[in-house]
Amino acid sequence: MTPHIHAQPGDFARTVLMPGDPLRAKFIAETYLDEAREVSNVRNILAYTGSYKNTPVSIMASGMGMPSIGIYSWELFTTFGVENIIRVGSCGAYTKTLKLHDVLLATEAWSESSYAKTQNGDMAPHNHPSAKLNQWLQESAARQGIPIHEGTVHSSDVFYRHEHEVFQKIHAEEGALAVEMESFALFHNARVLNKHAACLLTVSDHLITEEASTSQQRETGFKQMIEIALGSVKNCSIENNSV
Ligand SMILES: O=P(O)(O)O[C@H]1O[C@H](CO)[C@@H](O)[C@H]1O
Ligand SMILES: O=c1cc[nH]c(=O)[nH]1
Predict the structure, then answer these.
(1) Is the dihedral of CA 156, 158, 163, 165 positive or negative?
(2) Is residue 236 classed as helix, strand or coil in its secondary structure?
């Protein structure tokens, strides 16, 4: 048990899919897992463990933002024997090459956040996902015939910026294709704890066209991304597949 997760070590599988939204976690568990059981609900951050095609897997929400995913991913990695966390989030597109509901695999997270600096003094503005997890996610997408984009994402501490247009500068200077709010901290925690993390995102908002998904779509509408992530858990479950 930790201050934020009331569960026993054996309650979590080796691999956790982690959406920001607790109701997306519930939807994934109820829709896709066999024998899903709730393993924690502290602060309504719902966590479930079950199996997908006979492979154990857990689903747990992260809440919104780097402080929140920083806490949950740290506790999962250090206390509950979790080896792999795959974030399944939503994002806002910075480029017209991304369309609403497209799926994006993060190959890098750029951030102006102080998360890493505060956590252990790291000053680098980039953190990276596990190459092996990304390979398994690419293979899962290809097997299922689901197209994905790949590239840098901007992990922002702020959803409502004073200057909307600042995204154009971040896209031009940092190459970020989209914005979300967690992967920089998740990748940092995985690296410092010698664990593994990846991030799949569905475009829920478009900063150029100003299209936006409904809250219902954010909860239950991201099936392709979820199916790609679930399609990789068999690889992730094999002990010798060290990433
Ligand atoms: O849909 P989730 O996974 O929460 O991800 C995105 O949505 C939230 C903002 O609406 C932030 O958490 C952002 O990263
Ligand atoms: O951080 C985020 C997530 C989804 N949509 C956005 O515009 N920003």
Answers:
(1) positive
(2) helix
Atom of ligand 1 nearest to the CA of 179: 14
Q: What is the mean pLDDT of residues 97-124?
A: 98
What residues contact residue 102 under an 8 Å CB cut-off, 6+ apart?
Answer: 93, 147, 149, 202, 203
CB of 85 closer than 8 Å to CB of 197:
yes
User: Is the confidence metric ipTM above 0.95 for this complex?
Assistant: yes
Among the bound ligands, name the one nearest to the CA of residue 222: 1
On whether the pTM is more than 0.90, the answer is: yes
Determine the residue of 24, 62, 66, 91 to mutate for testing ligand 2's pocket, defined as the one with the most ligand atoms within 8 A of the Cβ atom: 91
Could you report the per-residue pLDDT of 3-49, keeping only the tens digit for each? 999 999 799 999 999 999 999 999 999 999 999 999 999 999 999 99
**Burial level of 239, CB count in 10 A (0-12/13-18/19+)?**
exposed
Could you tell me if the CB of 118 is within 6 A of ligand 2?
Answer: no
Specify the CATH class of 15-232 in words. Answer: alpha beta
Q: What is the C-alpha separation between 158 and 80, in angstroms, rounded? A: 30
Distance of CA 216 to the CA centre of its chain: 19
22 Cβ inside 6 Å of ligand 1: no
